[in-house]
Amino acid sequence: MKLYLSVDMEGITGLPDHTFVDPALHNYEIGRKIMTQETNHVVSACFDAGCQQVLVNDSHSKMNNLLIDELHEKAELITGGVKPFAMVEGLDQDHNGAIFLGYHARAGQPGVMSHSMTQGVRNFYINDENVGELGFNAYVAGHFGVPVLMVAGDDQAANEAEELIPNVTTAIVKRSITRSAVKSLTPAKAGELLRQQVSKALDNRANVDPLIPPKQPTLRIEFANHGQAEWAAFMPGTELEPGSCIVSFKAKDILEAYRAMVVMTELAMKTDFS
């Protein structure tokens, strides 16, 4: 059995605010250490359950946060920030299942550090369905016939996962009080929970179906301001919807939609606020 592990940071145990997830700020080194420890708990549980391969994709910000010298020796790691498929780089039909670790709720929703890719995005829509990172990534997995077996993070990420993916296993390592305050398990207790839930998720894998994306989807991204939408609309094939901050793109499949999303959000970040 071959498993894929996408590891974000905002949903990692004990991390309440951006000082733990921004490399320029004082709590970041603590955050990346706990992130690496938490990844190791999941990887170990996968191998204990009989997996032959576990591919880990660092999926936060510049995507070079995990400490490879402290990572489980049997894991393979994708690291670095220029990836065509960002949070799901390396995921393909050869995997038997995916696990999303350290995940958070989508933009505009309750939950610790809730957002969708960047702070400039208000909403992602696949056709008329509002999805966050979790849903978009699950659709890419579904394109390859890969089910998302488990989602770990805060309670709001778990709620979002359960609404999207019937029979998914969740692991709640912290509960949101506000967007920047949590009631958290300790890393030791979270490790116990994660190992337990990985075992449960793998036992339950036959009951989880891939989240199949729509064919030829229309991607619509609502940005926080018009300048961001203008930058995103520079990408060929896009349309800035009149009277709004929404940019749409008709894709041939979910993979093209995902790559378009990566380009559009990167362009939008070039907006000058001065």
From TrEMBL:
Q: Which Gene3D superfamilies match?
A: Dipeptide transport protein
Cited InterPro entries? DppA_N, Peptidase_M55, Peptidase_M55_sf
Pfam families, per this entry? Answer: Peptidase_M55
The GO molecular function terms of this record are: aminopeptidase activity; metal ion binding
The active site annotation covers H115 (nucleophile)
Q: Does the keyword Hydrolase apply?
A: yes
Specify the protein name. Aminopeptidase
Question: Which species is this UniProt entry from?
Answer: Halalkalibacillus sediminis
